[in-house]
Amino acid sequence: MSKGDVIVFQETMLELGKSTIDFSSDTFKLGIVDATITPAVDQTSPTWSDFSANEVSTAGNYTSGGETLTTVVWAMVSGIATLTADDVVIAVHASGFTDGYWAILYETVSDVAIIAIDLGGPESEQAGPVSVEWSGGVVFQLPANALTWATPVT
């Protein structure tokens, strides 16, 4: 994988069907972890708790448990269900972490991990701001034409 690659956990789709995640009202965080854990697309029931033991240091500007996404909106955009949010920027700090490899987006009510982003680490808060910039503010999209439906037998 390379910097910016995204893993969408397969279990995320299952959790959407269970209504575990409410993109309209839940709180979402972006936690940063080191290289001692590698997220996998087929990870069984991924949660922030699976990753939090490998969270980077909170000695600088990074907040324990991750940064809360702001200006989160779940809406139809050109016929596609879309989650948007502000970019996440962790300001430079001389005492900050130096070993960020993965950003894990998760929902705080159920602790469900949604995606993992390869930071191309090690990212260092000491060397400069660490940021995750969403393309056009888009965090996640669920286009109806990407879903597969069974053909009914009549």
Whole-number tally of structural domains? 1
Tell me the overall shape: globular
Compressed to H and E, one letter per element, the order equals EHEHEEEEEEEE
Number of helices: 2
- Main-sheet strand order equals 1-8-7-2-3
Cα(first) to Cα(last) distance is 45 Å
Which stretches are poorly predicted, pLDDT < 50 over at least 5 residues? none
Round the mean pLDDT to the nearest integer and report it.
91
Q: What is the tally of beta strands? A: 10
Largest sheet: 5 strands, antiparallel
Helix content: under 10%
What percentage of amino acids are in beta strands? 25-35%
Q: Structural class of the helices, strands and pairings? A: mainly beta
Taking all Cα atoms into account, the compactness measure Rg is 16 Å
Folded structure, characterized:
With 154 residues, the chain is mainly beta. It has one domain (6-146). Helix content is 8%, strand content 33%. The protein contains two helices and ten strands, in the order E-H-E-H-E-E-E-E-E-E-E-E. The protein starts with 5 loop residues before the first strand and ends in a 12-residue tail after the last strand.
